[in-house]
Design a protein that fits this description.
The chain is of the alpha/beta class. Helix content is 26%, strand content 20%.
Length: 504
């Protein structure tokens, strides 16, 4: 293939989608550049095994010490492989409430309501064509998951067929990005490319910065800290590196808050103060309870389970370990809290876990270049639970899950003493055990105000030929799982870019 017309940085969910669509629908020569390796096949395709093995295919990023979490550093193990985090996550296909996306449009982001996004979602999961992702009920439903959903009903929640976060006061089984062969990753967008589609993939390639000619991007410099080579693009450079990496690449390219760039010794090309601001994540805590039953996915059962999975594609190996959950809040409204249940946990032998997660955090964090090492990892400060409102809502969620645990269905299952929080006070529990739930968004926010980084067509303000297409453009985090959000963004952006580049 000749030099690309379009460069896509990052082969995560949104990157895979937009690269394939722009090459196929727009007829462009597209190259997608990814720091990680190709999708490795069975190690990440087998759901339960992949949850153990995913650290090998993840970035080892972490936050600065968090003052509201006893000074702990919070890990951010985002995917570093073709397919990005969709290749290493728990596969939950819950996009959240349509109202959360309608709020994006109501804030001035024309074309980003749920009605605008829904056609792309349906295209992505239509079941037709080589790019369609498979969504289905969990292949495996553990006895614990069944007992949990019954306990939720006993506690007054309404059971629904597919738990997507669309409405509070509901419970059920999560729909999963899962097909007959296991995990259904966005890496699928880069396979089985039709003849004539000019799409190339360059894995194991780290992007150092964009190459700018004034305000116009003309390519990228690759090679990490040293900048060993260049790749030029004649029409577009599209950042799809995720909410932690996309702003940092802009920073290293001289695009961002002038004071922060100058403090790190980086040359300022375009003063864009919103780059790296507005970091949001779903913060949560683990409620852990003793169980008299041995965990079904314990290592002693792996050989038997692997044989069953290999022969039939069933059994505990087909599970993501968090098959069932609930969304809490006022009935008929968007959820305040999500709970997802785990039939086993490594926090304590013979125990189960309930992850209690804040859906609409009001705390906001930042990503800035490290003044001591501007070409290394950024300084990630999510400011988890800085807001008193966030702490109050999360504490209420913990009390509600205790009510669900006390219901007959779970008591008959064989639950014992509470391990966490146990005897800890509410404040001590949050400070010692709250964490991010690996859904970072918002650091290149879409909007119309001076702190917005991209406009509603995802063009970086003050630049030419630069777009951002990933979860960093999210104005406010939806009450769902952000792999689904990234898929929505990728499909919507593909339509916008195909139209824009077609006019160039």
């Amino acid at each position: 293939m000749k030099d690309p017309e379009v460069l896509v940085i990052g082969a995560g969910t949104a990157g895979c989608v937009v690269a394939r669509r722009v090459a196929e629908q727009g007829g462009k020569r597209v190259m997608i550049v990814e720091a990680g390796p190709p999708f490795p096949g069975w190690p990440l395709r087998v759901p339960l095994a992949s949850l153990r093995l995913r650290p090998w295919w993840s970035w080892r990023l972490e936050s600065v010490p968090q003052p509201h979490l006893d000074g702990r550093r919070i890990p951010f193990p985002m995917g570093r492989v073709i397919g990005g985090t969709s290749s290493v996550n728990a596969m939950v296909a819950a996009a959240g409430p349509p109202a959360d996306y309608d709020a994006w449009a109501a804030a001035g982001n024309v074309g980003w309501s749920w009605a605008d996004l829904r056609p792309g979602w349906e295209r992505a999961i239509s079941g037709a064509g080589t790019t369609a992702l498979s969504i289905r009920r969990p292949v495996h439903e553990s006895a614990f998951s069944t007992a949990f959903t019954r306990a939720c009903e006993e506690d007054g929640l309404r059971r629904i067929d597919a738990l997507t976060g669309a409405e509070a006061d509901t419970c059920g089984m999560f729909p999963l990005f899962q097909g007959p062969a296991g995990r259904s990753s966005a890496a699928r967008y880069l396979t089985q490319v039709p003849r004539g589609v000019q799409l190339s993939l360059r894995p194991r390639t780290t992007v150092r910065r964009l190459i700018m000619d004034g305000t116009r991007a003309v390519g990228i410099e690759i090679g990490g800290r040293r900048g060993e080579a260049k790749i030029l693009a004649s029409e577009a450079v599209i950042l799809c590196a995720g909410a932690l990496q996309s702003p940092h690449i802009l920073h290293k390219s001289g695009i961002g808050p002038a004071k922060a760039l100058a403090a790190a010794g980086l040359e300022v090309a375009i003063d864009l103060p919103g780059v790296g601001q507005n970091l949001q994540d779903h913060a949560g805590v683990p409620v852990v309870v003793e169980s008299t039953l041995p965990p079904p996915g314990r290592p002693a059962m792996w050989l038997k389970s692997a044989i069953e999975y290999g022969l039939f594609g069933t059994g505990v190996m087909a599970s993501n370990c968090c098959e069932a959950g609930c969304f809490l809040g006022k009935a008929g409204m968007t959820p305040d809290v999500e709970v997802f249940s785990h039939f086993q946990t490594n926090r304590h032998p013979r125990s189960v876990e309930f992850s209690v997660v804040l859906m609409h955090p009001t705390s906001r964090g930042t990503i800035v270049p490290d003044p001591d090492d501007p070409w290394g990892p950024p300084r990630i400060d999510p400011r988890i639970l800085e807001s008193g409102k966030d702490r109050s809502v999360l504490n209420a969620g913990v009390e509600r899950i205790r009510s669900i645990i006390a219901q007959p269905a779970l008591q008959r299952f064989g639950l014992g003493a509470e391990i966490l929080p146990g005897g800890l006070s509410a404040d001590a529990f949050l400070r010692g055990h709250a964490s991010a739930y690996y859904h970072p968004v918002g650091t290149c926010r879409m909007g119309t105000d001076p702190l917005a980084v991209v406009d509603s067509r995802l063009r970086v303000r003050g630049t030419e030929n630069v777009w951002v297409v990933d979860n960093s453009i999210v104005p406010t985090i939806p009450a769902g799982h952000t792999a689904a959000t990234a898929l929505l963004i990728g499909e919507r952006a593909a339509d916008l870019l195909t139209a824009d580049l077609g006019r160039s």
